[in-house]
Design goal:
alpha+beta, Glutamine Phosphoribosylpyrophosphate, subunit 1, domain 1, Rossmann fold, eight-stranded antiparallel beta sheet, six-stranded antiparallel beta sheet, 18 helices, 24 strands, binds adenosine monophosphate
């Protein structure tokens, strides 16, 4: 059966298209499965479905029948891209998949993943979550490695505008060795945040950067293995959780079984914002249930920033667990004051400011009879640019709320993220240079409170030294690119 053309199947050979290299930063989901007796395309579809929240711009999968890799990717949601006919056409023994959210740069088909590259007639497909911080160094290395080989020349390597293509090109630049050994050479040179799933026709690989900034877990099927960004994806495909892929670890899975090699010493710095917003509540990271962390943060928030109010309402969905915690600790009744249209994606997903603002109105509608005349505590997970809260406070007042007290289950976002989350400059954030009172005035609330960084950290039950908290405290655990560091210096001064 032929896959439908809209999705653009990519059988083995062929590079992607040309364009300038200016890496988008990604907050994505990755998946991989090796299960020769299972319908791996179907499992990957479900895995991606569970990881849809990590990226809604494009999705794709690469499937191999041990002889040939097929890549199918397109713009849009997983459920829009794949239908049963497509999945049936993608028969194989192993697969990788990706959901993508590009935070800067073009949201175009060429940047959808998995990326594909052929190495002497063999295929290499790769999917990436994170953001590489030393792309210039890697570009130079690539140029040295294979200056004359057309398929790895800089021009060709930069055929799409993401750093994932660069990693794929680097691995492909060592055609003489096995991919496992090549990866052991290339991975230690890559800096930044990266969770990778990649595959040849016969072998599935998974790797996590030495800091383990983004989550990546290993699961077991009765007759195979699964790797995924979040445990929630293991649950959906019926895999049991085995363990996290260790920071600095490369896993190789083939018919001979599973092998682990360490390409760098583990120096854990897990992203604290995964607990705040990115990960699903039904996911477990570093042994902590994300939902339980969020409830504990809500309890801390109630202790640290109490409010006199009649009802605690969450901003659905991400504010729900912390609102539950806030209500529990404060004794103020919990209620539903806002209804979310579940068919609208995360507001950040739309790249333009106008659509983002429209997105807020599309997404949430107040329950007038519930909130009319009441003093509300409104709990949300974060304030980044301030748009959501500004629109929300206005909406709640118009719907009859007597008072609106905003409580946020993370500290103010003060610093850009260079490891895969969409806060790329200080200028776009509301918090830098403003006091909490000024932010409160800007969003029009009666009062505003943020949980402290200590309170949030304690709630994760992960030692502070094992977390990346750079978006809140500006301490970057991995060197950031020199140009960005310069820009930050300027932004700090101004
Ligand atoms: P803002 O309107 O810019 O203040 O954005 C804050 C809202 O966006 C919060 O309600 C969060 O739930 C959500 N949010 C926070 N971080 C992200 C992110 N990295 N991607 C998408 N949405 C986010």
């Amino acid at each position: 059966m032929r896959p439908k053309s809209r999705g653009r199947v990519r059988p083995v050979l062929g590079n992607d298209h040309s364009g300038a290299f200016e890496g988008p930063k990604e907050e994505c989901g990755v998946f991989g499965v090796f299960a020769p007796e299972e319908d791996v395309a179907q499992l990957t579809y479900y895995g991606l479905f569970a990881l849809q929240h990590r990226g809604q711009e494009s999705a794709g999968m690469a499937v191999s029948n041990l002889e040939r890799i097929m890549v199918f990717k397109d713009m849009g949601l997983v459920s829009q891209i794949f239908d049963q006919a497509t999945l049936r056409s993608l028969q194989g023994r192993l697969a990788i998949g990706h959901t993508r959210y590009a935070t800067t740069g073009a949201s175009v088909w060429q940047n959808a993943q998995p990326t594909f590259r052929s190495v002497q007639g063999k295929g290499l497909a790769l999917a990436h979550n994170g953001n590489i911080t030393n792309t210039h160094e890697l570009e130079e290395w690539l140029a040295e490695l294979a200056p004359s080989e057309q398929h790895v020349s800089k021009q060709k390597a930069m055929d799409s505008t993401n750093d994932t293509t660069l990693i794929t090109a680097l691995i492909a630049a060592f055609p003489g060795q096995g991919i496992e050994d090549i990866a052991m050479t290339v991975l230690p040179r890559i800096k930044g945040a990266f969770c990778l799933t990649f595959m040849t026709e016969t072998t599935l690989f998974a790797a996590r950067d030495p800091q383990g900034v983004r989550p990546l877990v290993l699961g077991r099927l009765s007759n195979g293995w699964v790797v995924a960004s979040e445990t929630a994806a293991l649950d959906l495909v019926g895999a049991s959780f085995i363990r996290e892929v260790e920071p600095g670890e490369l896993l190789t899975i083939d018919e001979g079984g599973i092998r682990s090699r360490r390409f760098a010493e583990a120096k854990p710095k897990g992203c604290i914002f995964e607990y705040v917003y990115v990960a699903r509540p039904d996911t477990t990271i570093a042994g902590s249930s994300v939902n339980a962390v969020r409830i504990r943060v809500g309890e801390k928030l109630a202790e640290e920033c109490p409010a006199e109010a009649d009802m605690v309402i969450p901003v659905p969905q991400s504010g729900i667990p912390s609102a539950v915690g806030f209500a529990r600790a404060s004794g103020i009744p919990y209620g539903q004051g806002l209804v979310k249209n579940n068919y609208v994606g995360r507001t950040f997903i739309e790249p333009s400011q106008t659509i983002r603002q429209l997105g807020i109105r599309l997404k949430l509608n107040p329950l007038r009879e519930e909130i009319g005349g009441k003093r509300l505590v409104v709990v949300d997970d974060s304030i980044v640019r301030g748009n959501t809260q500004r629109a929300l406070v206005r909406m709640l007042r118009e719907a009859g709320a007597a008072e609106v007290h905003v409580r946020i289950s993370s500290p103010p976002v003060e610093w850009p993220c260079f490891y895969g989350i969409d806060f790329s400059t200080r200028a776009e954030l509301i918090a830098p240079g403003l006091t909490v009172d000024q932010i409160c005035r800007s969003i029009g609330a009666d009062s505003l409170g943020f949980v402290s960084l200590e309170g949030l950290t304690e709630a994760t039950q992960v030692p502070a030294g094992n977390l990346c908290r750079a978006c809140f405290d500006g301490n970057y655990p991995i060197a950031i690119p020199p140009a960005q560091a310069e820009l930050l210096k300027l932004e700090k001064i101004t």
